[in-house]
Amino acid sequence: MPDRFELESSQLRAECDPEVFPFKNTREVEPFFGGIGQKRAVQAIDFGLHMECPGYHIFVTGMPGTGKTTIVQDLVRQHAKKLNAPDDFCMVNNFSDEYQPKTISVASGTGMRFSKRVSKLIEDLKKELPEALTSKNFQGKQSKIKNKYSEMRKVIMDRLEQEASAKNIQISKTSSGIHPEPLVDGKPLKPEEFQQLPKKQQDQFEKDIHMIQEKIESAFQEANKIYHAYQSEMEKLTRKSALDVLQEHFIMFRDEYRGRKGVLSYIEALQSDIFENIDKFIPSGKKEEAAEEFLKDTVSMF
Questions:
Q1: Packing angle, helices 199-256 and 261-276, rounded to 10
Q2: CB-CB neighbours of 148 under 10 Å
Q3: How many whole angstroms separate alpha carbon 123 and alpha carbon 115?
Q4: Which one, of 175, 173, 155, 174, lies nearest residue 163 by Cα?
Q5: pLDDT score recorded for residue 285
Q6: With helix as H, strand as E and coil as C, how does 243-299 read?
Q7: d(Cα 170, Cα 160) in Å, to the nearest integer?
Q8: pLDDT band, very low/low/confident/very high, at 42 (cuts 50, 70, 90)
Q9: Other Cβ atoms within 10 Å of 181 Cβ, number
Q10: Which of 293, 290, 294, 296 shows the shortest CA–CA distance to 134?
């Protein structure tokens, strides 16, 4: 007895008449995006994608194997093609709090270029700042400053020696400092010779020596002020020369990223940080050598 559900082999093949299609081949057919039989789902996803306000999400649920992921990915890709390319985001140092880095945005596709430019900037400054602060031009300016304050220091010592000479007192330099000594006929007196002088002459010498000693202390204070003024002017020269180098480089950055507030803010902070830590770019010992030499000369005078 034949089974009523039994099929002939000819019934196992579904035939389709090509004439029913309004195209010659599939190249003439626009791709289909969306889900077959998922009209409401597609509308909901499309609505969510056009929701530009923050705080909204799209939640998709359904039976496994029903094409949820494929539909969502296709719709998202098509939606993204209509949008402008998003900015690149770079994580940069927060100079106010190193444990809280900041993110800044640059034009799409330029993030790596920005990173390389900052790295190159630092490398260039490591080379150019020391060169600027050891150049002949810079050293010439340093020499002018040193000569100016050395002359001021010499005026103090010359005045002190003139005042002492007027009182027949010689200012002698020893390993322990400078000391006023009485002179008779242009020669310093030994202690026993001083004791042989008349009492009145001894008293006058002691009075004059005490006065010169006070002037020595006053001269030392003046020389100390000159040393600090010298240090201050040398520091200003260093910072001015360094700032000239920095501005030459950073002005190009500002022109290139004009309109990018985050980038400009970072560039300003970067320049300020380098300027505040300029000593790290100066060859070790160079800056200290000049100050120590001037201080040594000042101390040797007293």
A1: 160
A2: 14
A3: 13
A4: 155
A5: 55
A6: HHHHHHHHHHHHHHCCCCHHHHHHHHHHHHHHHHCHHHHCCCCHHHHHHHHHHHHHH
A7: 10
A8: confident
A9: 18
A10: 290
Cα–Cα distance, 56 to 59 (Å, whole number): 10
CA distance 45 to 68: 11
Q: Which residue has the tokens 């194997």?
A: 65
> Is pTM, for the whole model, over 0.70?
no
User: Could you give the dihedral angle defined by the CA atoms of residues 116, 117, 120 and 124, in that order, rounded to the nearest 10 degrees?
Assistant: 180
pLDDT tops 60 at residue 86: yes
Burial 59-78 (b: 16+ CB within 10 A, else e): eeeeeeeeebeebbebbeee
- Give the DSSP H or E segment for 164: helix 136-166
Per-residue confidence at 190, pLDDT binned at 50, 70, 90? confident
The token pair that represents 198 in the structure block: 């008349």
| Token pair of 142 as six digits | 């340093």
Residue 23 Ramachandran class (φ > 0 left, ψ -120 to 50 alpha, else beta): beta
The residue assigned the tokens 């402008």 is: 84
CA distance 19 to 39: 29
What's the confidence (pLDDT) of residue 296? 56
Measured distance CA(54)–CA(45) in Å, rounded: 16
**Residue 282 to residue 284: CA distance in whole angstroms:** 6
